[in-house]
Design a protein that fits this description.
mainly alpha
Amino acid sequence: MTPEEVMKRHARSFAPAAMLLDRRDRARIARLYALCRTVDDLADTVGGAEIRERLRRLARDLDCARSADPLVREARDLLSDRAAGLAAFRHLVETVAEDTGPLAIRNEAELDRYCAGVAGTVGVMVCALFDVDTRWHPAATDLGKAMQMTNICRDVQPDAEAGRRYLPATLCPHAPSAIAAGTPEAARDVRAAVAELLTRADALYLSGRSGLPALPLRLRLAVATASGLYAGIGDELRARACDPLSGRVFVPARRKFRLSLTAVAGQLQARRTPPHEGHHAAT
């Protein structure tokens, strides 16, 4: 399966947005997505101590130009001469390495670190691929964190069934088994936690979008569209009283089209302005 086929199959929100890119840039984004997806799949579908050690070794070997690991070679080829991008990929791999089995996030600070490690890093890698100045990287990190937090809110049920609880214990102090079973107390706290995290995600989206003017026009349109579609998942959850346990939430095709048009129109009308420091989300 080619990188673009991988992205089309799995990235249901970003793959359509990536069509706004030209062929060369779309291919680079697809390679980055496939690389990160492979790392994530190793943890999610295989997992265990052996995969944890493989990922840790991968992170160490990123400095080795002669590594035989195909993931190392792909990362170095894609992010060559882009130190910030390679460092972000290492951070992602190290974070995913600790997510290869049962997991229960303890507090909001731990959740923030997790979201930064698995998704904020992707924003930095995209910036590195397109040679975006490092002063914009915090906004890119926040946008990635916002999308990951939205994913966490949507996927509470399947995550719990896999023995994982990304909702912080400070907001939802229940074992994954109780969440998966939908006990009344767990269901109540899940709804409250999701409502809180979606509010936090809103602030992260605002901060992240403040960096969009730094991106080349086509990439700006693609990222704005993807972030609008992800935020739309949060809106659908709110329409369901923040209940992710009653079935998987999705954005209807007609609404996806409207969200995409709104995002593109908004960016085409926006003027190029520097980021506002006050927009950086507090953690």
